[in-house]
């Protein structure tokens, strides 16, 4: 059966099935399971590691802001909580966009796009809320 945008999608169980180190239903260069991760250049690996560090730093600073506040910065406690929420959502967004998309390139775009959009919206709304609460001081 022909679909409007190409061949019919494969059932999930055929995509996930592995046969002798090959991705199910595929042959040729790049179909080996291990070649998915080993074809990356060194620059790509360095970018992924730097992005991972950036995401973890945002996540930890966000959690710290939510739990302990922001120290000597004169903002309300609720603003510090929203600032922390923005840090956590921003860390998740950075991880999804710069690391997870490279590790799992065949993830369903609808699922990936929804998760990335959700994290980005929470990040932007949190920053906007912090700006509003800070302006109310």
Word description of this protein:
By secondary structure, the chain is mainly alpha-helical. The chain has helices at residues 12-16, 35-38, 42-68, 77-103, 109-135, and strands spanning 2-3, 6-7, 18-19, 22-23. The strands form two sheets. Strands 1-2 form a two-stranded antiparallel sheet. α3 (42-68) packs antiparallel against α4 and α4 (77-103) runs antiparallel to α5 (109-135).
Provide the succession of SSEs: EEHEEHHHH
Give the strand line-up of the largest sheet.
1-2
Shape: elongated
* Share of residues in strands: 5-15%
Rg computed from alpha carbons, rounded to a whole number of angstroms: 21 Å
Mean pLDDT equals 80
Strands, total number: 4
Low-confidence runs (pLDDT<50, min 5 residues)? 11-21
Main beta sheet, described? 2 strands, antiparallel
What structural category characterises the helix and strand content? Answer: mainly alpha
The count of helical stretches stands at 5
- How far the N terminus sits from the C terminus, by CA atoms, comes to 63 Å
Classify the helix fraction into a percent range: 55-70%
Give structural attributes.
two-stranded antiparallel ribbon, 66% helix, 6% strand, mainly alpha, 5 helices, 4 strands, 137 residues, elongated, two-stranded antiparallel sheet, single chain
